[in-house]
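Entry 0007
Protein: Alkanesulfonate monooxygenase
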Amino acid sequence: MELLWYIPNQVLPGHRGDEVTADHNSLDTLTAQAKALETYGWGGALLGTGWGRPDTFTVATALVARTTTFQPLIATRPGYWRPANFASAAATLDHISGGRVLVNIVSGKDNLGAYGDHEGDQAHRYGRTREFMYLIRRLWTEENVTFHGEHFRVDNSTVVPRPLVRQPRLYFGGASEAAERVAATEADVQLFWGEPLDGVHERIERLKKLSASLGREHAPLEFGLRITTVVRDTTEQAWADARARVAVMQADHNPHPSVGQQRLLDLSERGEILDENLYTAPGKYGGGGAGTTWLVGSAEDVARSLRRYADLGITHFVLSDTPYLTEIERQGETLLPLLRN
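Output (structure tokens):
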């Protein structure tokens, strides 16, 4: 079981309700979070990406230089980097960090025009993503790579230095049919948001069958869960705090949610609480992405829920709650020991 957190490299303070505003994104603040993750036994943290945020790769590099075991899960977009540039940068950081780099490939919407990128329809977007992942794998493992695809090309390309021990693991998300075909063929880990157990089970089985039908050439696809975990000393306190936070949230009127985001938003129609403690109300009042649904309860409650996901085949967990540093420590002390035992 891999247990990661989330570090919010954001320009504006108050991300997802974090009460830290002074120097919220300074290197010292982010380093304190990364070092706390090491202290309390987390494996590392996801670093988000998007135009208008600090450059994710730069932040990851700085945090690696200040830590010893922290693994950055570096989110990147195929249109923000060229495959050979990214393969070289990631291999270099992996080499000098002692093999700590993880990679999250993102194909969601972004302000593409701001950095000179463009995308066509969904088929074009995921076709480009698949080529990106296929090509960086080859560049990490082969020499003198020549590839002429629909979206990218390289000639006689060799990346040096190589990744230290193994190629960095490729995480990927997406719920559309096009996204799942990319995951089934090229990803190492398919990340799900916080859907109910039956939905996650259905998607795992579908992706396994799809991998077989498409002739997957890599090791079997693994599965991960990215979700908000609201943990308090007691079940009652956790629910009181969760409901109080939702009461002050503002509605988020996103006119074009992704397929995965829409799946989460639709969950509220099934009920406010699913699978004992999966809270769907945040999505109705402003929660997005991993903040759309929350697992709420005592450490024992949340650990029991996460173990149910593990029983379905989830082996990678990316958890978070705010305030970030406080929750790294609280959940590191109370939740992680239960999961490891």
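Curator remark: The mean pLDDT is 92. The two ends are 11 Å apart (CA to CA).
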